[in-house]
Amino acid sequence: MLFKEIIGNNSVKKQLIEAVRNNRISHAQLFSGKSGSAKLALALAYAQFLNCENRTTVDSCGTCSSCLKFNNLSHPDLHLVIPVLKTKEVQNPVSDHFIGNWRDFITNNYYGSLNGWIDSFGTENKTGQQGTIYKDEAINIHKKLSLKNYEAEYRVVLIWMPERMNLEVSNKLLKLFEEPPKGTIFLLVTENANQLLPTIISRLQTIKIADFTAEDIVNHFGEQALSLEKAKQLRNLTNADLGKITQILEDKEGELDLFSDFSVWMRLTYKMDVQGISKWVDNLSLKGRKQQNLFLSYAIKMVRECLIYNFASDTLLKTNENEFAFLTKFSPFIHEENSVMITEKLEESIKAINRNANAKILFFELSLQMVKFLRLKRKFAIK
Asked: In order of start, what are the domains of the chain with their CATH numbers?
Protein backbone atom coordinates (compact mmCIF):
# COMPACT_ATOMS: atom_id res chain seq x y z
CA MET A 1 0.00 0.00 0.00
CA LEU A 2 1.41 3.37 -1.07
CA PHE A 3 0.47 6.68 0.55
CA LYS A 4 -0.52 8.05 -2.86
CA GLU A 5 -3.11 5.27 -3.21
CA ILE A 6 -4.97 6.58 -0.14
CA ILE A 7 -7.29 9.51 -0.61
CA GLY A 8 -7.48 12.35 1.93
CA ASN A 9 -5.73 12.67 5.30
CA ASN A 10 -2.80 14.52 3.74
CA SER A 11 -1.72 16.02 7.06
CA VAL A 12 -1.48 12.55 8.61
CA LYS A 13 0.56 11.28 5.67
CA LYS A 14 2.94 14.22 6.03
CA GLN A 15 3.26 13.60 9.78
CA LEU A 16 4.10 9.92 9.28
CA ILE A 17 6.59 10.54 6.47
CA GLU A 18 8.42 13.29 8.33
CA ALA A 19 8.66 11.13 11.46
CA VAL A 20 10.53 8.49 9.46
CA ARG A 21 12.73 10.99 7.62
CA ASN A 22 13.66 12.69 10.90
CA ASN A 23 14.17 9.35 12.65
CA ARG A 24 11.53 10.19 15.26
CA ILE A 25 9.66 6.90 15.09
CA SER A 26 7.40 6.10 18.02
CA HIS A 27 7.63 2.43 19.05
CA ALA A 28 3.86 2.14 19.71
CA GLN A 29 1.22 4.05 17.76
CA LEU A 30 -2.57 4.06 17.73
CA PHE A 31 -4.38 4.78 14.46
CA SER A 32 -7.86 5.82 15.54
CA GLY A 33 -10.77 6.42 13.16
CA LYS A 34 -14.33 5.46 12.37
CA SER A 35 -15.36 2.27 10.62
CA GLY A 36 -14.48 2.52 6.93
CA SER A 37 -11.89 5.29 7.41
CA ALA A 38 -8.30 5.20 6.15
CA LYS A 39 -6.84 4.03 9.47
CA LEU A 40 -5.76 0.54 8.35
CA ALA A 41 -4.62 1.67 4.92
CA LEU A 42 -2.45 4.40 6.47
CA ALA A 43 -0.97 2.00 9.03
CA LEU A 44 -0.05 -0.47 6.26
CA ALA A 45 1.39 2.29 4.06
CA TYR A 46 3.44 3.51 7.02
CA ALA A 47 4.75 0.00 7.77
CA GLN A 48 5.75 -0.38 4.12
CA PHE A 49 7.42 3.06 4.06
CA LEU A 50 9.41 2.21 7.21
CA ASN A 51 11.04 -0.77 5.52
CA CYS A 52 11.19 0.34 1.87
CA GLU A 53 14.65 -0.20 0.44
CA ASN A 54 14.42 2.72 -2.00
CA ARG A 55 11.91 5.09 -0.46
CA THR A 56 11.55 8.60 -1.84
CA THR A 57 10.94 11.74 0.19
CA VAL A 58 7.17 11.28 -0.10
CA ASP A 59 6.41 7.55 -0.49
CA SER A 60 7.61 3.97 -0.77
CA CYS A 61 9.08 2.90 -4.09
CA GLY A 62 6.51 0.11 -4.47
CA THR A 63 8.90 -2.11 -6.44
CA CYS A 64 11.62 -3.31 -4.05
CA SER A 65 11.50 -6.76 -2.47
CA SER A 66 10.24 -5.36 0.84
CA CYS A 67 7.45 -3.32 -0.78
CA LEU A 68 6.22 -6.26 -2.82
CA LYS A 69 5.97 -8.41 0.31
CA PHE A 70 4.23 -5.68 2.33
CA ASN A 71 1.85 -5.03 -0.54
CA ASN A 72 0.40 -8.54 -0.32
CA LEU A 73 0.73 -8.63 3.50
CA SER A 74 3.20 -11.51 3.40
CA HIS A 75 6.40 -9.89 4.72
CA PRO A 76 8.00 -12.17 7.35
CA ASP A 77 8.54 -9.18 9.65
CA LEU A 78 4.90 -8.06 9.45
CA HIS A 79 2.97 -9.79 12.24
CA LEU A 80 -0.80 -9.39 12.02
CA VAL A 81 -3.08 -9.72 15.03
CA ILE A 82 -6.85 -9.82 14.42
CA PRO A 83 -10.08 -10.76 16.23
CA VAL A 84 -10.93 -14.41 15.67
CA LEU A 85 -13.64 -16.94 16.50
CA LYS A 86 -13.72 -20.28 18.22
CA THR A 87 -14.83 -22.85 15.69
CA LYS A 88 -15.46 -26.58 15.71
CA GLU A 89 -11.95 -27.17 14.39
CA VAL A 90 -10.14 -24.46 16.42
CA GLN A 91 -10.97 -24.13 20.12
CA ASN A 92 -7.89 -22.08 21.10
CA PRO A 93 -7.68 -19.71 18.16
CA VAL A 94 -4.94 -17.22 17.33
CA SER A 95 -4.61 -14.95 14.32
CA ASP A 96 -2.30 -17.33 12.48
CA HIS A 97 -5.17 -19.82 12.13
CA PHE A 98 -7.20 -17.39 10.00
CA ILE A 99 -4.64 -14.93 8.63
CA GLY A 100 -4.89 -16.23 5.05
CA ASN A 101 -8.63 -15.54 4.98
CA TRP A 102 -8.10 -12.11 6.54
CA ARG A 103 -5.48 -11.20 3.92
CA ASP A 104 -7.99 -12.03 1.19
CA PHE A 105 -10.72 -10.07 2.99
CA ILE A 106 -8.60 -6.94 3.42
CA THR A 107 -6.81 -6.91 0.06
CA ASN A 108 -10.27 -7.10 -1.54
CA ASN A 109 -11.35 -4.00 0.44
CA TYR A 110 -8.82 -2.18 2.62
CA TYR A 111 -11.71 -0.33 4.26
CA GLY A 112 -13.58 -3.46 5.34
CA SER A 113 -15.18 -3.54 8.78
CA LEU A 114 -15.00 -5.90 11.73
CA ASN A 115 -18.62 -6.90 11.08
CA GLY A 116 -17.70 -7.73 7.50
CA TRP A 117 -14.81 -9.89 8.68
CA ILE A 118 -17.01 -11.75 11.17
CA ASP A 119 -19.74 -12.21 8.55
CA SER A 120 -17.18 -13.86 6.27
CA PHE A 121 -17.12 -16.85 8.64
CA GLY A 122 -20.69 -17.64 7.56
CA THR A 123 -22.14 -20.80 9.09
CA GLU A 124 -18.96 -21.40 11.13
CA ASN A 125 -20.21 -18.68 13.48
CA LYS A 126 -23.35 -20.45 14.65
CA THR A 127 -23.29 -18.90 18.13
CA GLY A 128 -23.11 -15.27 17.00
CA GLN A 129 -19.56 -14.54 18.24
CA GLN A 130 -18.36 -10.96 17.73
CA GLY A 131 -14.64 -11.70 17.38
CA THR A 132 -12.08 -11.65 20.19
CA ILE A 133 -8.31 -11.51 20.60
CA TYR A 134 -7.71 -14.32 23.12
CA LYS A 135 -4.98 -14.91 25.70
CA ASP A 136 -3.14 -17.39 23.46
CA GLU A 137 -2.49 -14.46 21.12
CA ALA A 138 -0.40 -12.69 23.77
CA ILE A 139 1.65 -15.86 24.27
CA ASN A 140 2.14 -16.13 20.51
CA ILE A 141 3.28 -12.50 20.24
CA HIS A 142 5.83 -12.94 23.03
CA LYS A 143 7.23 -16.04 21.28
CA LYS A 144 7.56 -14.24 17.95
CA LEU A 145 9.27 -11.21 19.50
CA SER A 146 11.76 -13.38 21.33
CA LEU A 147 13.30 -14.08 17.92
CA LYS A 148 15.40 -11.68 15.86
CA ASN A 149 14.00 -9.73 12.92
CA TYR A 150 13.99 -11.89 9.81
CA GLU A 151 15.18 -9.32 7.27
CA ALA A 152 13.64 -5.88 7.86
CA GLU A 153 15.05 -3.00 9.84
CA TYR A 154 11.72 -2.62 11.62
CA ARG A 155 9.58 -5.56 12.65
CA VAL A 156 5.94 -4.42 12.66
CA VAL A 157 3.25 -5.89 14.88
CA LEU A 158 -0.08 -4.62 13.56
CA ILE A 159 -3.07 -5.20 15.85
CA TRP A 160 -6.37 -4.68 14.04
CA MET A 161 -9.26 -3.80 16.38
CA PRO A 162 -7.29 -3.96 19.66
CA GLU A 163 -10.50 -3.09 21.53
CA ARG A 164 -11.41 -6.75 21.00
CA MET A 165 -8.54 -7.86 23.26
CA ASN A 166 -9.82 -9.41 26.47
CA LEU A 167 -8.47 -8.13 29.79
CA GLU A 168 -5.89 -10.89 30.13
CA VAL A 169 -4.36 -10.13 26.73
CA SER A 170 -4.30 -6.40 27.44
CA ASN A 171 -2.42 -6.90 30.69
CA LYS A 172 0.07 -9.34 29.12
CA LEU A 173 0.95 -6.85 26.38
CA LEU A 174 1.33 -3.73 28.55
CA LYS A 175 5.04 -4.21 29.12
CA LEU A 176 5.67 -4.87 25.42
CA PHE A 177 3.88 -1.67 24.42
CA GLU A 178 6.04 0.27 26.85
CA GLU A 179 9.37 -1.38 26.02
CA PRO A 180 9.26 -3.46 22.84
CA PRO A 181 12.38 -5.29 21.64
CA LYS A 182 14.82 -3.27 19.56
CA GLY A 183 13.63 -2.75 16.00
CA THR A 184 10.00 -3.56 16.83
CA ILE A 185 7.11 -1.20 16.12
CA PHE A 186 3.53 -1.72 17.36
CA LEU A 187 0.76 -0.28 15.20
CA LEU A 188 -2.73 -0.54 16.71
CA VAL A 189 -5.70 0.19 14.45
CA THR A 190 -8.93 0.98 16.29
CA GLU A 191 -12.39 2.40 15.75
CA ASN A 192 -13.27 2.48 19.46
CA ALA A 193 -10.27 3.84 21.33
CA ASN A 194 -12.40 4.53 24.40
CA GLN A 195 -12.78 0.76 24.89
CA LEU A 196 -9.04 0.33 25.39
CA LEU A 197 -7.57 0.34 28.88
CA PRO A 198 -6.29 3.78 29.92
CA THR A 199 -2.98 2.13 30.81
CA ILE A 200 -2.65 1.02 27.18
CA ILE A 201 -3.61 4.37 25.67
CA SER A 202 -1.06 6.13 27.88
CA ARG A 203 1.68 4.03 26.25
CA LEU A 204 0.68 4.86 22.68
CA GLN A 205 1.10 7.82 20.38
CA THR A 206 -2.41 8.48 19.05
CA ILE A 207 -2.95 9.44 15.42
CA LYS A 208 -6.51 10.51 14.66
CA ILE A 209 -7.76 9.67 11.19
CA ALA A 210 -10.29 12.03 9.61
CA ASP A 211 -13.46 10.95 7.81
CA PHE A 212 -13.54 10.91 4.03
CA THR A 213 -15.19 13.94 2.43
CA ALA A 214 -17.58 13.61 -0.50
CA GLU A 215 -14.81 14.97 -2.73
CA ASP A 216 -12.44 12.26 -1.43
CA ILE A 217 -15.00 9.61 -2.33
CA VAL A 218 -15.42 10.97 -5.87
CA ASN A 219 -11.63 11.02 -6.29
CA HIS A 220 -11.41 7.42 -5.09
CA PHE A 221 -13.98 6.02 -7.53
CA GLY A 222 -13.64 8.57 -10.33
CA GLU A 223 -16.12 11.16 -11.61
CA GLN A 224 -17.41 8.80 -14.29
CA ALA A 225 -18.33 6.16 -11.71
CA LEU A 226 -19.80 8.49 -9.09
CA SER A 227 -21.18 12.01 -9.15
CA LEU A 228 -20.56 14.42 -6.29
CA GLU A 229 -24.27 14.48 -5.43
CA LYS A 230 -24.40 10.67 -5.24
CA ALA A 231 -21.19 10.65 -3.20
CA LYS A 232 -22.76 13.03 -0.69
CA GLN A 233 -25.83 10.81 -0.39
CA LEU A 234 -23.77 7.64 0.12
CA ARG A 235 -21.45 9.41 2.57
CA ASN A 236 -24.39 10.54 4.68
CA LEU A 237 -26.06 7.13 4.50
CA THR A 238 -22.93 5.19 5.56
CA ASN A 239 -21.43 7.77 7.91
CA ALA A 240 -18.45 8.18 5.55
CA ASP A 241 -17.67 4.44 5.61
CA LEU A 242 -15.72 3.82 2.40
CA GLY A 243 -15.91 0.06 2.92
CA LYS A 244 -19.71 0.13 2.89
CA ILE A 245 -19.77 2.52 -0.07
CA THR A 246 -17.48 0.19 -2.01
CA GLN A 247 -19.75 -2.76 -1.26
CA ILE A 248 -22.86 -0.81 -2.25
CA LEU A 249 -21.37 0.16 -5.60
CA GLU A 250 -20.01 -3.35 -6.29
CA ASP A 251 -23.44 -4.83 -5.58
CA LYS A 252 -25.02 -2.24 -7.91
CA GLU A 253 -27.02 -0.91 -4.96
CA GLY A 254 -25.66 2.55 -5.72
CA GLU A 255 -27.97 2.59 -8.77
CA LEU A 256 -30.95 2.83 -6.42
CA ASP A 257 -32.59 6.23 -6.22
CA LEU A 258 -33.15 6.09 -2.46
CA PHE A 259 -34.47 9.62 -2.14
CA SER A 260 -37.00 9.18 -4.93
CA ASP A 261 -38.20 5.85 -3.52
CA PHE A 262 -38.55 7.29 -0.01
CA SER A 263 -40.28 10.53 -1.00
CA VAL A 264 -42.77 8.68 -3.22
CA TRP A 265 -43.46 6.19 -0.43
CA MET A 266 -44.14 8.92 2.11
CA ARG A 267 -46.52 10.74 -0.23
CA LEU A 268 -48.43 7.56 -1.02
CA THR A 269 -48.78 6.59 2.63
CA TYR A 270 -49.85 10.06 3.71
CA LYS A 271 -52.54 10.16 0.99
CA MET A 272 -53.57 6.57 1.89
CA ASP A 273 -53.27 5.68 -1.79
CA VAL A 274 -53.65 1.91 -1.43
CA GLN A 275 -53.39 1.24 -5.15
CA GLY A 276 -50.25 3.37 -5.42
CA ILE A 277 -48.77 1.70 -2.33
CA SER A 278 -49.44 -1.72 -3.84
CA LYS A 279 -47.56 -0.80 -7.04
CA TRP A 280 -44.69 0.71 -5.02
CA VAL A 281 -44.45 -2.46 -2.90
CA ASP A 282 -44.43 -4.65 -6.02
CA ASN A 283 -41.51 -2.65 -7.42
CA LEU A 284 -39.45 -2.74 -4.20
CA SER A 285 -40.15 -6.44 -3.56
CA LEU A 286 -38.47 -7.30 -6.88
CA LYS A 287 -35.17 -5.84 -5.68
CA GLY A 288 -32.57 -7.82 -3.76
CA ARG A 289 -32.43 -8.20 0.01
CA LYS A 290 -29.39 -5.93 0.28
CA GLN A 291 -31.15 -3.23 -1.69
CA GLN A 292 -34.23 -3.51 0.52
CA ASN A 293 -32.09 -3.25 3.66
CA LEU A 294 -30.30 -0.24 2.22
CA PHE A 295 -33.64 1.47 1.57
CA LEU A 296 -34.83 0.80 5.13
CA SER A 297 -31.55 2.16 6.52
CA TYR A 298 -32.02 5.24 4.39
CA ALA A 299 -35.55 5.65 5.73
CA ILE A 300 -34.21 5.55 9.31
CA LYS A 301 -31.63 8.15 8.36
CA MET A 302 -34.32 10.45 6.93
CA VAL A 303 -36.40 10.13 10.11
CA ARG A 304 -33.31 11.18 12.06
CA GLU A 305 -32.78 14.19 9.77
CA CYS A 306 -36.39 15.25 10.32
CA LEU A 307 -35.88 15.23 14.09
CA ILE A 308 -32.66 17.23 13.76
CA TYR A 309 -34.47 19.76 11.57
CA ASN A 310 -37.29 20.03 14.11
CA PHE A 311 -35.32 20.17 17.33
CA ALA A 312 -31.70 21.13 16.58
CA SER A 313 -29.58 23.27 14.30
CA ASP A 314 -29.77 22.91 10.53
CA THR A 315 -25.97 22.81 10.48
CA LEU A 316 -26.13 19.28 11.93
CA LEU A 317 -28.10 17.97 8.95
CA LYS A 318 -26.45 15.51 6.58
CA THR A 319 -28.58 16.07 3.50
CA ASN A 320 -28.19 17.17 -0.09
CA GLU A 321 -30.27 19.93 -1.70
CA ASN A 322 -33.15 17.69 -2.76
CA GLU A 323 -33.35 16.01 0.64
CA PHE A 324 -33.29 19.35 2.47
CA ALA A 325 -36.08 20.75 0.30
CA PHE A 326 -38.16 17.65 1.05
CA LEU A 327 -37.43 17.85 4.80
CA THR A 328 -38.69 21.40 5.09
CA LYS A 329 -42.14 20.18 4.05
CA PHE A 330 -42.13 16.65 5.48
CA SER A 331 -40.50 17.18 8.90
CA PRO A 332 -43.70 18.40 10.65
CA PHE A 333 -45.10 14.90 10.25
CA ILE A 334 -42.16 13.35 12.19
CA HIS A 335 -42.20 14.28 15.86
CA GLU A 336 -41.94 12.96 19.42
CA GLU A 337 -45.30 11.17 19.18
CA ASN A 338 -44.37 8.88 16.29
CA SER A 339 -40.60 8.99 15.63
CA VAL A 340 -39.72 6.17 18.04
CA MET A 341 -42.49 3.94 16.71
CA ILE A 342 -41.47 4.57 13.10
CA THR A 343 -37.81 3.87 13.80
CA GLU A 344 -38.56 0.69 15.74
CA LYS A 345 -40.82 -0.57 12.96
CA LEU A 346 -38.14 0.12 10.33
CA GLU A 347 -35.50 -1.67 12.43
CA GLU A 348 -37.84 -4.64 12.91
CA SER A 349 -38.31 -4.76 9.15
CA ILE A 350 -34.54 -4.92 8.59
CA LYS A 351 -34.32 -7.90 10.93
CA ALA A 352 -37.27 -9.54 9.18
CA ILE A 353 -35.64 -9.08 5.76
CA ASN A 354 -32.46 -10.68 7.11
CA ARG A 355 -34.58 -13.65 8.21
CA ASN A 356 -35.89 -14.03 4.63
CA ALA A 357 -39.35 -12.60 5.29
CA ASN A 358 -41.71 -12.26 2.33
CA ALA A 359 -40.81 -8.78 1.07
CA LYS A 360 -44.17 -8.06 -0.55
CA ILE A 361 -46.14 -8.84 2.63
CA LEU A 362 -43.60 -7.07 4.84
CA PHE A 363 -43.50 -3.78 2.90
CA PHE A 364 -47.26 -3.66 2.41
CA GLU A 365 -47.85 -4.15 6.14
CA LEU A 366 -45.11 -1.60 6.90
CA SER A 367 -46.79 0.90 4.58
CA LEU A 368 -50.13 0.48 6.37
CA GLN A 369 -48.36 1.09 9.67
CA MET A 370 -46.77 4.25 8.22
CA VAL A 371 -50.25 5.50 7.23
CA LYS A 372 -51.24 5.28 10.89
CA PHE A 373 -47.98 6.77 12.23
CA LEU A 374 -47.99 9.80 9.91
CA ARG A 375 -51.51 10.72 11.01
CA LEU A 376 -50.61 10.89 14.68
CA LYS A 377 -50.92 14.46 15.92
CA ARG A 378 -48.17 16.05 18.00
CA LYS A 379 -48.93 17.81 21.27
CA PHE A 380 -46.64 20.81 20.85
CA ALA A 381 -45.93 23.17 18.03
CA ILE A 382 -42.61 23.18 16.24
CA LYS A 383 -40.75 25.86 14.37
From this structure: 3-210 (3.40.50.300), 256-374 (1.20.272)
